[in-house]
């Protein structure tokens, strides 16, 4: 082998080594590129997760507000039902009339009844149908514009 052949062989070997190094570098570059892409995707996913957490927090807050409103509505409905029941005669369960025999009247304990119903009841019993306190027809008071008026004189 002469010097020329050795040079060619060395040159070929060197070229082969350079090609191998480039190939390794290309693989390393691809790994680095993949890692950078993964990092970017991870960052994007974290941002998306943060957004989702904020949305979830807002939705939970809205849900708790809606639950509070629903509870208030339920309480209000119960109060309205109680008022509606209170605006009915305890004896016959009918609503009071503005005029006529079923006007709202109270007795000394403060309970309300339809006029005819309580007068009929007091003929049979001298006790309030609700609290059983003693009462008489003289204790019957008309409810007019939110005021109790003595009606004992009117009943005699």
From TrEMBL:
InterPro entries: RFWD3, Znf_RING, Znf_RING/FYVE/PHD. Pfam families: zf-RING_2. SUPFAM superfamilies: RING/U-box. Residues 42-86 form a coiled coil. Keywords: Coiled coil, Metal-binding, Zinc, Zinc-finger. The keyword Metal-binding applies. Residues 89-132 form the RING-type domain. GO terms for biological process: interstrand cross-link repair; protein ubiquitination. GO terms for cellular component: nucleus. This is E3 ubiquitin-protein ligase RNF8. It comes from Drosophila mauritiana.
């Amino acid at each position: 082998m002469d010097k020329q052949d050795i040079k060619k062989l060395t040159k070929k070997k060197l070229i082969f080594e350079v090609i191998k190094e480039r190939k390794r570098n290309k693989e390393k570059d691809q790994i680095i590129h993949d890692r950078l892409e993964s990092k970017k995707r991870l960052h994007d996913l974290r941002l998306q997760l943060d957004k989702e957490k904020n949305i979830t927090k807002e939705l939970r807050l809205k849900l708790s507000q809606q639950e509070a409103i629903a509870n208030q509505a339920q309480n209000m409905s119960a109060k309205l039902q109680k008022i509606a029941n209170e605006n009915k005669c305890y004896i016959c369960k009918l609503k009071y009339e503005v005029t006529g025999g079923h006007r709202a009247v109270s007795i000394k304990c403060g309970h309300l009844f339809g006029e005819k119903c309580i007068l009929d009841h007091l003929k049979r019993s001298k006790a309030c149908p609700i609290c059983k306190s003693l009462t008489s027809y003289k204790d019957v008071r008309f409810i007019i514009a939110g005021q109790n008026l003595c009606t004992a004189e009117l009943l005699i």
